Amino acid sequence: MTEKMAIAKAINESLRQALEADPKVLVMGEDVGKLGGVFRVTDGLQKDFGEERVIDTPLAESGIVGTAIGLALRGYRPVVEIQFDGFVFPAYDQIVTQLAKMYARSLGKVKLPVVVRIPYGGGIGAVEHHSESPEALFAHVAGLKVVSPSNASDAYWMMQQAIQSDDPVIFFEPKRRYWDRGEVNTEAIPGPLHRATVAREGTDLTLVAYGPMVKLCLEVADAAAEEGRSLEVVDLRSISPLDFDSVQASVEKTRHLVVVHEAPVFLGSGAEIAARITERCFYHLEAPVLRVGGYHAPYPPARLEESYLPDLDRVLDAVDRSLAY
Question: Is 203:254 a contact under the CB 8 Å cutoff?
Fold first, then answer.
């Protein structure tokens, strides 16, 4: 059963499948029910599964996640939506001090299978607190899995795997890509949740990205090919844990690495990748690992975001600098 669908639709279908398969799965969040979510990702779910399975919550992120933790303790598998990335911080305490720690605190006796869905990133012309990329904050916290799909097929299958996981999963959804369409085989056997994939093979340089930046890196590879350069694009898919083995295998082949993400470069996920790959591939690298990302500044007003976000020219400039060594 292969169908072409947008990322938002793929997530909707994945949630629908999970709700049908397991009566303990719940969907919770602000406006997820009657409205179907501000991006309509949960459209139609409350109508089909009822208000006790798809729950419109108060505007209280800390309370939403805290309630989900209590439900998970009673055997449910809540899928919580944080309406926008910048709204997650009132719930940060619940996530990092309760959700992430309970398994270790109970010596493995208590599991909290909670999925926290967060539409994240810029590129949609939104107002303040609606375009953040806080993934590194959660990846830094032991006890949380942090993932981000870049295409419709991964959006469908990674959501399934996140809901089935007994560990808490922070599921970052690239909102600027919600309407990008791709083939989804709903009967395929998915690969491991935390394994990176090679989105495009190449020989001269490796581009590593996840979520919204994978599409940009594929466009960069197309542009570089016109100049006779062969770039490999690795889609991380998972930010914690990170699949360093797949990145290492690519870098040992190409000997150059550029890491791209929307979040600020300073102490971003790319910093860990650069450090670890430098340790692992020191004698293979022919240039320093370079990083392209946002600036170490508050996310700007919408009319300036194109200057803030990584674009084709900024990534190509990093490619040129790396290959010039």
Answer: yes
- Burial class for 140, CB neighbours closer than 10 Å (0-12, 13-18, 19+): middle
Tell me which fold the domain 195-322 belongs to: Rossmann fold (3.40.50)
pLDDT in tens, 166-175: 999 999 999 9
Q: Pull the structure tokens for residue 263.
A: 């979040």
Catalytic-role residue among 130, 194, 256, 261: 130
Mean pLDDT of 47-58: 98
pLDDT (tens digit per residue) in 102-134: 999 999 999 999 999 999 999 999 999 999 999
Give the per-residue pLDDT at 251: 98
pLDDT digits (tens, 9 = 90+) for 69-96: 999 999 999 999 999 999 999 999 999 9
Q: What is the CATH number of domain 1-183?
A: 3.40.50.970
Q: What is the predicted pLDDT for the residue at 194?
A: 97
20 class by beta-carbon count within 10 Å (0-12 exposed, 13-18 middle, 19+ buried)? exposed
- Is residue 256 among the annotated active site residues? no
In the numeric block, the tokens 């006790």 are attached to: 52
- Closest to 231 in 3D by CA, of 220, 242, 221, 239: 221
Length of the chain, in residues: 325
**219 has which bridge partners?**
none
Distance CA(9)–CA(45), nearest Å, equals 12
Delimiting residues of CATH 3.40.50.920 domain(s) in the chain? 195-322
CA distance linking residue 197 with residue 178, whole number of Å: 20
How crowded is residue 186: how many other Cβ atoms within 10 Å of its Cβ? 16
Give CATH 3.40.50.970 domain extents, the chain: 1-183
Distance, in Å, from the CA atom of 116 to the CA atom of 131, rounded to the nearest integer, reads 17
